[in-house]
Amino acid sequence: MSDTPENVAATNAEARNERHRERMVRKKTVMDERIANAQSERGLLLVNTGIGKGKSSSAFGMVARALGHGLKVGVVQFIKGRVSTGEQLFFKRFPEEVRYHVMGEGFTWETQDRQRDIETAGKAWEVAVELLNDPGIALVVLDELNIAFKHGYLDVDQILEDLRNRPLTQHVVVTGRGAPQALIEAADTVSDMSLVKHAFQSGIRAQKGIEF
Amino acid sequence: MSDTPENVAATNAEARNERHRERMVRKKTVMDERIANAQSERGLLLVNTGIGKGKSSSAFGMVARALGHGLKVGVVQFIKGRVSTGEQLFFKRFPEEVRYHVMGEGFTWETQDRQRDIETAGKAWEVAVELLNDPGIALVVLDELNIAFKHGYLDVDQILEDLRNRPLTQHVVVTGRGAPQALIEAADTVSDMSLVKHAFQSGIRAQKGIEF
């Protein structure tokens, strides 16, 4: 083949494709090995924390995933916002598949009453324990539970004990900023959502489908 | 009131409750002001990036939210896994409300063919542009689009132009690790999901409802 500019370009493109193929063959070997080594299955404790967006929405994405696989789900929302959330409106469409409990009375700066918040959190935990005792429920979401720890409304050690006593294959997702260290240590998977930037900072208000 | 231990304890608890109330009154003022200042509404460009868990599941949680508010949603998955995902199985139940397209052929290390991946990414983007031109769709999820940028399968500048031309109130969520800088600059809200720990590292395999 003569080295006209067209032929040189064609040879370079081929070489690039070939290098890509070789790299991907190596990567496939690594990924297949990793998957082969990760064979154990059991209920996971996942924690979504950090100050960024995505802690609760990620938990609700997992609810959708679980429902897609025909699994049953339980949800306890420890903090209720000012309005009904889209996730609540949506998942309440499936009463056979999702047990959905909104227990909080509002943000802590809305009630301004520590004693009432403690009682509300205690009642919410009782509902959570019912879900955690039900082997028919594959995934339990404890939304904004970390807020209750942060204000000292619930005792972390007691809650960890209840979590340890759940059915062996049940998954649990805990959300909320400021996850306590003991919970992070007990968890299998922990994601920290950090805020790179947020539209709220530029004067954009919370919008349907995005923030609630 | 005499200062028996019981009375002292009661007084301390009351004082604590009162301090809590005062702090929450101040916090409410701050939060109400912030909400009052954030009044503008328009379609947001959100980016979920980072190496931690929660980028895609957070986007699918927003899908659930949007559906709860009666909005219509479009989804394009740029990378298809080995198996059908729970989110795909679930959201395909709502063909009137969700336009769901799985376009990728598999992970890049599965196809090992750069030219074929580029063609697949191009076709996926054509489908995305249809959704981005439809003012009836309130939220568009471009799942794992960042992977296509990372491998140079799609041109960021062209895609940003298509995103700028979408309907004014349409929200877009882009997911995938390694979001390019130009996309981060163009975005309204960016979350970086960092990995604190992951069950996969301890030999637990990917499980239904959690990872897929």
TrEMBL record, chains A, B:
Residues 1-23 are annotated as: Disordered. One of its GO terms (biological process) is cobalamin biosynthetic process. Belongs to the Cob(I)alamin adenosyltransferase family. One of its GO terms (molecular function) is ATP binding. The lineage of its organism: Bacteria, Pseudomonadati, Pseudomonadota, Gammaproteobacteria, Pseudomonadales. Keywords: ATP-binding, Cobalamin biosynthesis, Cytoplasm, Nucleotide-binding, Porphyrin biosynthesis, Transferase. Pathway: Cofactor biosynthesis; adenosylcobalamin biosynthesis; adenosylcobalamin from cob(II)yrinate a,c-diamide: step 2/7. Residues 1-14 have a biased composition (Low complexity). CDD domains: CobA_ACA (cd00561). This is Corrinoid adenosyltransferase.
